[in-house]
Amino acid sequence: MTGSPTTLFYFFFLSSFLFSLLSSSAIPTTVSTPTNASEYILRNVFEHHDTCYDDSFVYVKASDASKSSLYSTYSTTRDCSGRLNNHDLPDKLPTCPPGLIDLDVMPLYVEKSQISYPYANLNISVKVHSSFDTVAFRLQCLYASDGQDVYCSDSKDMYINGIKEWPCRGLHVSSKVKYPVKFSYTCFRLTSYSTYVINATVLPQKCRISTIITSPSFSHLFPDLIVNQSVSQKIIHTTDPLWAPTLAADFSDDNAIWLRVGKAPRAECDTIKVNVYKEHADDSEKVSFLETFTVKCPDNAVKWEDLSSGKYLLTAYVPIRGCKFFCEKQARGCTQCLRTHLNLVVHETRASLQWRAVQKFKDYQFEIFIVTVVLVGIFVTIMIIVLVVYIRKKMKEAEETRNIQLKDFVNTMIVYADDNKPHTECVTFLVDNLRNGANIRPVFDVEELITSENVVPSRWLIDQLSTLTKFVIVMSDCAVRILDAEESKTHYLIKARPFDDLFSPAIDFIIENVTRDPAAGRKKYAIVRFNYSPPVPANLSVLNLPTYNLPEQFGHLTAFLHDLDLADNVVITNNMSQERLTVWRATFGRVETYHNENPTWISKRWIPKENRDTLVVKRDQPATQKYQTDKDRIAASERLHLLPPTGVRHDDEDDSPEEEKEETIVIAGPRSREIPDESDDDDNDDDDDEDEEGSATIVALDP
């Protein structure tokens, strides 16, 4: 057999079922007599006077059993070879497809007779499962230990017409034969230690399957205790004699070899083991152990999968009574098992695609390693080149100047502390640069409160904080002190302008707003530092607001105010002229000079609350303005909220000739007065409001 016994059983069962179904469906429904139904019964019509064919059978319908020429046998090598030679078959035929044919070769014991001693024959059986014309098998000797084997000798009986022909037997069937068909021959002599190959050929398919078989010595294969019919099976079971099996290699599977073992019918075993060794290609005397296959009795085959081409040594033995495969010479009490050896040459690799791939990898692993290293090197080189090109491109893009058009004007409030006049000049210069170089509309208290009339500072501050979307916080010495909660409790910043410094309430509002929504606050508020500015205090830096050093990062400040989402590694150049930068840095120098020349300036601006003194505000010298006509004087009086001057008549009065007199109106500021302390009583609130709004008393004096 060439396939798994289970698979063949299912195939045979399915074929029989389908055949019986088709046969039964072909019976007419009107047929009811046993005579008519009997013609659909299959009958074995194989008959031969030679007992060598006794195990053969050919089935046909009962109605065809009487017909002649249903089959014919080729009982001689001449007839069988002639039939095969008529088809002009090549020396090498393809392997028959699975399920077409099974080839089974087993040893057969022949008892002693009056004319011969006991000997062994080969029981060769071919079973064909589908349509065919002719099946034939040929016995060929591969090796013989001595000249006793007649098939391996160079006898003249082996020659036909001068050509050596190996023993051959065949069967030809007609189209009326049903399947399967079994053709057996049991009369080829089996000689100990000889190796044979049995080739079964099927026509017209022109395919072939082959089996190589060998046997141990006759006494090892058929011990007298086992083949002697006078010895009961109980005695055999009790004695458990040592024996060795025949060993065959079935090549019917393209991807594997079936290892088959044969034994005497009454020989007992639990398992039969087959060791596999492979000869070294450079030294045939050395072999390497590969694996051991185990055949569980009563099975007689095991599948050897995934093997490469080469020379192999197969050894089969039966582990009976604790015998060992090999015993050392010095070992005591060790029984060596009887063994059967088969030298096997596999010309082609028989394996699955997966195994072939793995073997190819093993066979060429060094070459594959070299190729892999080269490919990896090429890949790494390409990746490095791509990376270098990418980096150079990015560097080139970084070096390229990209002009961004600022289309919108952003209203931005400048939040700062009025440290001193030089510092305020630096802030004023920042405002000018934002206005002229960054498309910003700065909201600056100097411009809004001092130059505008009737503006309440506190209301103005609240309006800006609630409506503007961008704020710039300027760090300075006084700003740091105002942010210090402990110092703010005991000190305050003296105002140098008609209104209080607005940094403290503004920064309180900003901190509260950022704390409520940090993400939105970091997009709304920014901190700027000049080169003389102190570090950002901890209570402000913890808010993680964007901080810019000016003038170096003026471009980044511009991008922030315009909400330009630029990468961190983008280099933004200052969007102002070199002349402006020079002038701006000069203002920084004046601040540093002022600090150096006035080291105690901060103590005069940042003073304790308990030491607060009266502040004297000095007005400038009276300004004079001459008015030539009464109309001009009346207009001036109305603008300055003064009473009309004496002698001035209204337009509805009669005009009288009167000599024009030159008159001068002197506008002077109020006399110096004291600004009361913030801790004064409530009865001075009206005066404080007057000072906050920048109001002053105006006095008109005649010359």
TrEMBL record:
<feature type="transmembrane region" description="Helical">
    <location>
        <begin position="368"/>
        <end position="391"/>
    </location>
</feature>
<dbReference type="GO" id="GO:0016020">
    <property type="term" value="C:membrane"/>
</dbReference>
<feature type="signal peptide">
    <location>
        <begin position="1"/>
        <end position="32"/>
    </location>
</feature>
<dbReference type="InterPro" id="IPR013568">
    <property type="entry name" value="SEFIR_dom"/>
</dbReference>
<feature type="compositionally biased region" description="Acidic residues">
    <location>
        <begin position="652"/>
        <end position="662"/>
    </location>
</feature>
<keyword id="KW-0812">Transmembrane</keyword>
<keyword id="KW-0325">Glycoprotein</keyword>
<feature type="compositionally biased region" description="Acidic residues">
    <location>
        <begin position="677"/>
        <end position="694"/>
    </location>
</feature>
<dbReference type="Pfam" id="PF08357">
    <property type="entry name" value="SEFIR"/>
</dbReference>
<keyword id="KW-0472">Membrane</keyword>
<keyword id="KW-0675">Receptor</keyword>
<keyword id="KW-1133">Transmembrane helix</keyword>
<feature type="domain" description="SEFIR">
    <location>
        <begin position="409"/>
        <end position="559"/>
    </location>
</feature>
<keyword id="KW-0732">Signal</keyword>
<dbReference type="InterPro" id="IPR039465">
    <property type="entry name" value="IL-17_rcpt-like"/>
</dbReference>
<dbReference type="GO" id="GO:0030368">
    <property type="term" value="F:interleukin-17 receptor activity"/>
</dbReference>
<protein>
    <submittedName>
        <fullName>SEFIR domain-containing protein</fullName>
    </submittedName>
</protein>
<feature type="compositionally biased region" description="Basic and acidic residues">
    <location>
        <begin position="628"/>
        <end position="641"/>
    </location>
</feature>
<feature type="region of interest" description="Disordered">
    <location>
        <begin position="621"/>
        <end position="703"/>
    </location>
</feature>
